[in-house]
Amino acid sequence: MQVARAGALVVRYRIVPAAEADTPSPLQVGFATGRHLRTKPARNRIKRVMREVVRAHQHDLVDLFADRPGTLTLMVLYRGGRPGAEDAVLRDLPRLLDQVAHEVSSESRAGA
């Protein structure tokens, strides 16, 4: 399992072989927040923002796995508090997704 971090966000990811993947999709993403966000509506709001950012920036990751077997599995974790949570997600998550895409493409070139 690989890890990328920026600010209050952590992205854990791994490439799941096609034989183990339960879906033909090239990308699977999960989202979680810590209890630092005290209320459930606050946690749900941040998860909605994270989902939207991933939806808008997933194209590089999907393109990497369009022609190769396996699924890239990501878990996006928010570990910060409430003040500035949405701004932190909007600022840091696109950068983390780019970092993951770069690391995965570097690994595939090294393995080829």
The CATH class label is Alpha Beta
Q: What order do the helices and strands follow?
A: EEEHHEH
| Anisotropy-based shape | elongated
How many domain units? 1
Q: Please identify the structural class as seen in this structure.
A: alpha+beta
Tell me the quaternary state.
single chain
Short summary:
The protein is 46% helix and 25% strand.
Keywords:
elongated; alpha+beta; 112 residues; 3 helices; 4 strands; Ribosomal Protein S5, domain 2; 4-stranded mixed sheet
SSE layout:
Blueprint: E1 2-6, E2 9-16, E3 27-33, H1 40-57, H2 59-64, E4 71-78, H3 85-111
Parallel strand pairs: 3-4
Antiparallel strand pairs: 1-2, 2-4
Helix pairs in contact: 1-3
Write a structural description.
The protein is an alpha+beta fold. It has one domain (2-111): 2-Layer Sandwich (Ribosomal Protein S5, domain 2). Helix content is 46%, strand content 25%. The protein is built from three helices and four strands. It has helices spanning 40-57, 59-64, 85-111; strands spanning 2-6, 9-16, 27-33, 71-78. Strands 1-2-4-3 form a four-stranded mixed beta sheet. Strand 1 (2-6) and strand 2 (9-16) form a beta hairpin. Helix 1 (40-57) crosses helix 3. It is elongated, with a radius of gyration of 14 Å. The protein starts with a strand and ends with a helix. The model has no long low-confidence stretch (mean pLDDT 88).
